[in-house]
Amino acid sequence: MFKDFGVKPYLFPMPAYMIGTYNEDDSVDVMMMAWGGICAEDMVALNLEEEHKAVANLKARKAFTLSVPGMDTLPESDFFGIASSNKMADKFERTGLHAVKSERVDAPIITEYPLTLECEVVEMQSQPYGLRVLGKIVNVLAHEKVLDDAGKIDAAKLNTFVFDQMQNGYYAIGEKVGKAWNSGADLMRK
């Protein structure tokens, strides 16, 4: 038996990504977002509401970083989703996190986040459902603590979390439970 919920944004998991931009005074702004992700080999799509400070920053700087937070920064990352830089000028400073300027784009890299995509704004599309920002990935940075012995990024070592829109919760992820393009291969032989 199924229960009907109507039209809701209920997918699981939803990402918990951190958008890093610079404000007009060169201070750091970070906001948490869940509606977006990879949309092509070298592109990301972010679905945002126009009133976010990050949107003004994206329009002005044409650049951003998109980071995957670790469990060790869950309180700070959640705070970035609660607080608005439009109302709280010292939002980033309150967290105690640290940032350095990207060498490739005009945006900050939050040093505590283990995985960061450095992106250039390619297009901003006003849609009936909000603003879609398309960004070109110009580089990926990963902290050495999340690399395996072969120097590749190990998802389990990211120690990250995902968002649950249905219960407003966060869930830890990291256990590898199968191998992509392999776990179902036996069904090809039937």
Describe the structure.
- The chain is mainly beta and 190 residues long.
- Helices cover 14% and strands 36% of the residues.
- The chain is built from four helices and eleven strands, in the order E-E-E-E-H-E-H-H-E-E-E-E-H-E-E.
- A seven-stranded antiparallel β-sheet has the order 2-1-5-8-9-4-3.
What is the string of SSEs from the N terminus onward? EEEEHEHHEEEEHEE
The total count of helices amounts to 4
Largest sheet: 7 strands, antiparallel
Average residue-wise pLDDT: 95
Uncertain ranges? none
What is the structural class? mainly beta
As a percent range, the share of strand residues is 35-45%
Instruction: Estimate percent helicity.
Output: 10-25%
Tally of strands: 11
GO molecular function: FMN binding; oxidoreductase activity, acting on the CH-NH group of donors, NAD or NADP as acceptor
Keywords: Flavoprotein
Family: Belongs to the flavoredoxin family.
Protein name: Flavin reductase family protein
Describe the structure concisely for a colleague.
The chain is mainly beta and about 190 residues long. The chain has four helices and eleven strands, in the order ββββαβααββββαββ.
Features:
single chain, 190 residues, mainly beta, seven-stranded antiparallel beta sheet, two-stranded antiparallel sheet, 11 strands
Map the helices and strands.
Blueprint: E1 17-22, E2 28-33, E3 36-40, E4 43-48, H1 53-61, E5 63-68, H2 74-82, H3 91-95, E6 99-101, E7 108-110, E8 115-127, E9 130-142, H4 155-158, E10 161-164, E11 169-172
InterPro entries: Flavin_Rdtase-like_dom (IPR002563), Flavoredoxin (IPR052174), Split_barrel_FMN-bd (IPR012349)
GO molecular function: FMN binding; oxidoreductase activity, acting on the CH-NH group of donors, NAD or NADP as acceptor
Domain Flavin reductase like: 12-146
